Please model this.
Amino acid sequence: MKKKIIIASLVLAVLLLSLVSTVVSATDITITATPSYVSFSSAPTTWTLNGITGDSKIDVNTTYYANPLGDTTAPSTTVADGECQFTWTNDSSVNINIYVDCGSFTGGDADMTNSGTGSNGATTYGAYAWYSGMTYANKVVVKSSGSSALYTTTTPGEDKKWGAEILTRTDAWTGGTSSTATMTITATEV
Amino acid sequence: MKKKRVLIPVIIAVVAVIVCIIIFGSNGNENSNNTTSIEPSSNNNWVSPGKIFVENYVPGKGVMLEVQIHNGNPTPTEFSVGYRYPDQVAEGYSKPTGVSDWVQIGERFPVIEAHGTYTVPVWLHMPSTAKPPGNKWEFWIGVIDKSQTDTVITELAVRILVTMK
Model:
């Protein structure tokens, strides 16, 4: 009888092994998605350095703020609504994160690339972004790509005021033709 | 006593089957796509879904994902759809170094009718000899409304979170 039990156990073990391999091979690629949509807007859609209250002419090695109170006026220790030029609105069905990237200034005599550090240099500019209610000292470095989130977990329907600043390059301009850059505000689901 | 001897192997087998199901799971449909979407305001641009999880991914296999894009403009509008290196990734996920070639977009610049919604297929196909950036990694699909000509523009991104088998 013992022999029969041993044989039965061996047969079951073989069956078990084949079952395990079947289950493992059946665990194939799965794709799942949350039933959500991401939608948001930001306004206004233009920013001219020194063009909010100034004459749109810029100097080297100078910081310009997207601040309705003044192009060269830094926000308060705690950023206020009135110090922010832009407003974003989360029209998504879910919480979103907001990222701000800014590319190179090209096409003119004030060309400069983003240093990615917040500091400027001979041919590079530094940039930061901030939002209403935040401690200004915690402003986020704006890079050409890979910036940290400016704001996390913006809730559906939420409006938020925000602004940015650019510290122009240290070297003199080569002429008087303006250069342009594109600032991209990206939203992702949290 | 005889009954007991017969039952012992059967009980062992049943317990083993239960353990296997718990360990390996029972829902192993390849490419099962549970994507659903909710329609928001037709006057806003939107993308859906916000996140797609690809699990048990194996090098050499291809999967097709779908990204829905809605044109909230009152006129036909061109959108750009492309692989996007993520600004940040989820905790525990790696940044996707060198994976852009593994992502193919079905239509890079679709022109979507006014207030229309369009589905763009996205294929992920990692070569069988390639090394993944990590066991878990993330990349984005960036969608930009090309009618934005000003200096401050918006981008909507779909997060793709990949877990290797």
Summary: The domain at 46-164 of chain B is CATH 2.60.40.10 (Immunoglobulin-like). The helical segments of chain B are 2-24.
